[in-house]
Amino acid sequence: MSAAGATWALELEGVSRRFGGLRAVNAVNLKVAAGTNHAIIGPNGAGKTTLFALVSGELGLSGGRIRMFGHDISRWSATRRAGSGLGRTYQITNVFTGLTVAENVLIALRGTRKVKYAIFASGAPSSDESAELERLLSSCALAEHRDVRVGALSYGVQRQLELALALASRPRILLLDEPAAGLSPAERAPMAEMIRGLPEELTVLLIEHDMELALGLADRVTCLHYGEVLTEGSAQEIRRDPRVQEVYLGSTSHA
Fold it and tell me: Which CATH code fits 1-85+171-255?
């Protein structure tokens, strides 16, 4: 998608966040085209997670503006943003370990209803819920684990479940916070395939410490350094950028 013809899913203008005298995020400008995978990379302390929290509404802005599909959401609560199509995962899994995989997904599905009092209801799923449940279990490779208690699953499968929970609300934009964090090399490839297999109309913004995974998934990449945008480009452009190699990889021998 060319910039000229892009529909912007997210637009950040001068987005900043201060913690006392520390500028964790400083005047970040960023545009994410609808239906693309956009990665944010950078060394530890670059401000990636803080920027995510600003986009999701978990932290308030110290300055700047955020638009989602043209709507100014700068002052919207995290709940309102989620209800308007913004989903996210976290670095640390956030699941009910005492329940089964299917029960976790069903709770997430019921959480999207306007009537929330039945969210923990123990009744059998409706036909619509059953269809959505099967769709999510299949798309996140969880069908064989549906009746297993989450606490008995490997960490990698729990991460797959978290992705399913984030998708339960059918978000228009999905924020993936370190989707491969804590995964073994053998578990990273299936996670990457699941992300590549997400619906084409879904906009994905991800932060990922695994440089190769991030570049392999992204249509566009933004590199942060000390809370500011260092550079932006395609995966190939980022690979070749000596500034990225210096601040992120620590050398210039990885071209």
Answer: 3.40.50.300
